[in-house]
Each structure stands twice: as C-alpha cells, then as structure tokens.
Amino acid sequence: MTIPADEITAPWWEATRRGSLLLQRCGACRRAQHYPRALCAACGSTDLTWTESAGRGVVDSFTVVHRSPFPEPQAPYVVARVRLAEGPVLLTNLVGAAPDDWRCDEPVRLTWRPVGDGRRLPVFEKE
C-alpha cells in the first residue's frame, strides 16, 4: 500500500524512516498537534514547527476488529486512540498483546509497523 506524502506531510513521513514520531507545535499558542496540517487546530496560526514525541502515552479508547475489510491486517486486531504525553491523540493500532488484554488508561510506548517503502506507521505496545 502506498500512502502519498505532500508538502505538509513529507517531513513527518521522512521522520518515520528514522523511527522518529514528529508532532507539530504552534509558535503562537504552544499546543502540539497530530496529524500534520497547514494550520494550528487550536488557534489557526501558520507558525508551526516540528518537535519529536517521546513516544509515550495512554490508551484513551479502543475497539477490537473481528472482521477485517481487507486481507491485511488479519483480524482480530485493535484500533485505538492513544493520548500522547505531549497532548495530541493518535488513531493507531495496539500490538504485542492479545486483543482482550487491553484496558483504557493503560500506559503504552511507541513501536513501528513497516509500510513497505522504508516508511513506517506508529503503533503502540504495553509499557
């Protein structure tokens, strides 16, 4: 699967090759955000810089998918909202444990799933 990069997301995708999860930080209001955008979602400023996430967070919410609409990933798998220590929430997958072993508020750390072209997607495992 090829996920296209554009002028806004290219630095984020390039960082995934190095195993770095980048967030945008607003110079006007100091809020961190993810996914990459042209404007700050909080105040509308275009004064955005890149900052590296520590890759730590907690499970905010999750669901177990029992019937996948595609051959990969194979079901069951866990789709979750992870609230990063820096504040933003990522929609991601939880890996490394059985689907029934996950709980909300569980501490997690960043790991990576290869996309196939050298880039990677952020996924999370138990702390």
From TrEMBL:
Start and end residues of each ChsH2 rubredoxin-like zinc ribbon domain: 13-48
- Source organism: Planobispora longispora
- Fetch the InterPro entries from UniProt: ChsH2_C (IPR002878), ChsH2_Znr (IPR022002), NA-bd_OB-fold (IPR012340), Thioester_dehydratase-like (IPR052513)
Q: What residue stretches are annotated with the ChsH2 C-terminal OB-fold domain? A: 50-113
* Pfam families linked to this entry: OB_ChsH2_C (PF01796), zf-ChsH2 (PF12172)
This chain belongs to the protein called Uncharacterized protein
